[in-house]
Design brief:
Length: 661
């Protein structure tokens, strides 16, 4: 498509042509000493040349009104076909009536200004959807793969699963995958919103659309085309920007009644006063254009801004609800903590055994567990050279307590103190006191029992995130009244976390269904609750909360699709930022509604008081549209605060992952 054709099909061609015609018509009138903006003028008594010029001026005004008005009329007809009385119908009637009574300038001005308003709205919506456009732009087109020992460039969509893709310096990553060889740095801004490149090496996950800032990576493809994280984000933002907020739905219903009401008011006014111009002017003045656009432009801008910062909001309704959040419930594992626990202690309680025996039995039993606490125990045993190969003959997870396994014919139980009773162990051999001692140090203790007797206690710990306390502080600053941690860990460990972070409340020793109960209790207290979790253990609580939040979910398709808010950055400060963005967006929506309503009321009053003509009314009306648009555009400014450079919290930072099984 050549530039001229592109321009002619664009939103500015109609107002540009109409504006040129109005300018020429005005020039012809002024040349004859006539003010074209003072209403219709008669050519009687004028010289023939002057009369011809003024007739040409009137004709050009009418042509301008037709050029600008036809698209408006067609839009009105399409709306009527679906039984919708739109704003376009008001303008079409007013402009047609103005032509009939000889108010050519008024007809041209109304349609021209309305066409300019449409063009501005289209341009603004394109601008506010820029986040989506930028996401689409970063989608890779080609990939370099290894086939038969040769580097081959193929379309990104033709890469096959498990194929090795080469990512060189400056290239876009064409697929989701796992690094199998090489090192490099990737700019992940398009996925997570983080602009600082992230170092990648063997075993690390990479995402399509990210850009190599240096190094050379060999990546095994795991997600291609529509299955990539970037594709899911694009789909999610598309859906979110099209979804309506409750306020927007209300306004659309309101305008469906308001528009016929304005038409009835104009008709009654015209019949009572006999002033057709007054009636037509009321039609124009009553157009709720700024009111109708006030919500969509704010929502699209807010959702677009969030997408740029790695904050995916499911839609306008969830954005509105997020602005009301008064309580935040936080899962501890991987949310307040780093999610990388390490073995810290092995306490031997059976004199016949040694440290290695306790650790080996615990690791062999945990080999059949899917729980996050199993990994640090197994890795520590391997690091100490213990033989932990093979799987248990049987594995029986005990929800909320631990695991019971049969290993080489021996029954091994690993978990918290209540597990002992469930496993039939009556004597804890001092495990209770040892577990309390370790928990008081901020560690998660797990008792190890072998064939019905306690042989020891192992403990793991996880570091509290450096920005956890800052997140809580910012949540309070954003207007959240209560920040609660929900954990299956012991009360001692939970209290240590609360003291380090500054939480308002802590609920410990919780099973997944208990977290659901706490969320419902908070809602019963009148709170609008956001639940932040991993979407697995916390699924019931996430579903029951007013807003379910998944954090650090890059690459997790289910979380992106199901969470009300998905925070793509593994960054606690993204949570208060998301709440702040939602409150700012709702504030702009309310401001825009106020601007639109005040403008309409003032103009209607001005019409009845005298002094507000059809053209002046439309000019002020379009000015209110511009003001509403400009107000919404403020949301596009980058709002993300700088991360605080807080120091690690020392010994208190070694806090635990919850042992919910």
């Amino acid at each position: 498509m050549n530039p001229l054709t592109h321009w002619l099909r664009g939103p500015w061609s109609t107002p540009a042509v109409a504006g040129l015609l109005i300018a020429v018509a005005a020039a012809l009138s002024f040349a004859q000493g006539v003010n074209p903006f003072s209403g219709g003028h008669a050519e009687v008594g004028l010289p023939s040349e002057a009369s011809t010029a003024l007739m040409a001026s009137d004709l050009l005004m009418v042509v301008a009104a037709v050029v600008a008005g036809v698209p408006i009329l067609l839009s009105a007809v399409r709306a009527l076909q679906v039984k919708n009385i739109s704003i376009d119908l008001l303008v079409s009637i007013a402009a047609s009536g103005a032509i009939v009574i000889g108010e050519y300038w008024e007809a041209a001005a109304v349609t021209f200004l309305f066409a300019v308003g449409h063009a501005l709205e289209a341009r603004t919506m394109d601008r506010t959807r820029s986040a989506l456009a930028e996401l689409v732009a970063v989608a890779p087109d080609v990939a370099v793969v290894m086939r038969d020992g040769h580097q081959v460039e193929v379309p990104a969509a033709q890469v096959t699963p498990d194929e090795i893709v080469l990512v060189k310096n400056g290239a876009k990553v064409p697929v989701d995958g796992v690094v199998v060889d090489g090192t490099g740095a990737l700019d992940q801004a398009s996925v997570t919103g983080e602009s600082i490149p992230v170092e990648k090496s063997a075993g690390d996950q990479v995402f399509a659309g990210t850009i190599s800032a240096g190094g050379f990576l060999q990546v095994r493809a795991t997600g291609i085309g529509a299955d990539t994280t970037l594709a899911r984000i694009i789909h999610r933002v598309e859906e979110a920007q099209d979804a309506k907020a409750r306020t927007q739905s209300f306004l659309e219903k309101f305008s469906a009644w308001y528009t016929p009401g304005v038409m009835a008011l104009a008709l009654v006014t015209g019949l009572v006063t006999g002033d057709v111009v007054l009636a037509l002017t009321l039609l124009v003045i009553g157009c709720p254009g700024a009111l109708v656009i006030s919500i969509p432009v704010a929502l699209v801008a807010g959702i677009g801004r969030g997408a740029k910062d790695g904050i995916l909001v499911k839609g306008g309704e969830h954005l509105e609800t997020s602005a009301k959040i008064s309580a935040v419930a936080l899962d501890k594992t991987g949310t307040l903590t780093e999610g990388a626990p390490q073995l810290t202690d092995v306490s031997v309680l059976d004199p016949a055994l040694g440290r290695a025996d306790v650790l080996r039995w615990a690791a062999r039993a945990e080999a059949g567990s899917e729980h996050p606490l199993a990994r640090p125990i197994i890795e520590a045993a391997r690091a100490e050279g213990l033989d932990v190969a093979g799987l248990p003959e049987t594995t029986e997870p005990v929800v909320g307590k631990g695991i019971v396994a049969v290993v080489d014919g021996h029954r091994v139980a690993v978990g918290n103190l209540p597990l002992l009773a469930a496993a039939g162990v009556t004597d804890d051999a001092g495990a209770g006191a040892e577990a309390d001692r370790l928990a008081a140090q901020g560690r998660t203790p797990m008792v190890v029992a072998l064939d019905g007797r306690v042989i020891g206690v192992v403990a793991v710990a996880d570091r509290l995130r450096d920005d956890a306390a800052e997140m809580v502080s910012r949540l309070h600053a954003a207007g959240v009244d209560k920040v609660v941690m929900l954990t299956g860990d012991t009360q001692l460990v939970a209290d240590a976390v609360a003291a380090a972070v500054g939480l308002d409340d802590v609920r410990a020793n919780l099973l997944p269904e208990d977290k659901l109960t706490v969320v419902r209790q908070l809602q019963a207290e009148g709170h609008t609750v956001a639940m932040v979790g991993d979407g697995v253990n916390d699924a019931p609580a996430l579903a029951a909360a007013d807003i379910g939040v998944s954090m650090g979910v890059a690459g997790t398709g289910v979380a992106i699709e199901t969470a009300d808010i998905a925070l793509m950055r593994d960054d606690l400060l993204a949570l208060p930022q998301a709440i702040d963005l939602s409150r700012s967006t709702v504030a702009v929506m309310r401001q825009n509604i106020a601007i639109a309503l005040v403008t309409v009321v003032a103009l209607v009053a001005g019409v009845f008081a005298g002094g507000v003509t059809m053209a002046i009314g439309m000019l002020v009306h379009e000015a209110s549209v511009l003001l509403v648009i400009a107000n919404a555009m403020r949301l596009l400014r980058r709002r993300r605060p700088a991360r605080p450079t807080t120091a690690p919290v020392g010994e208190a930072a070694e806090l635990t992952l919850e042992p919910v099984r």
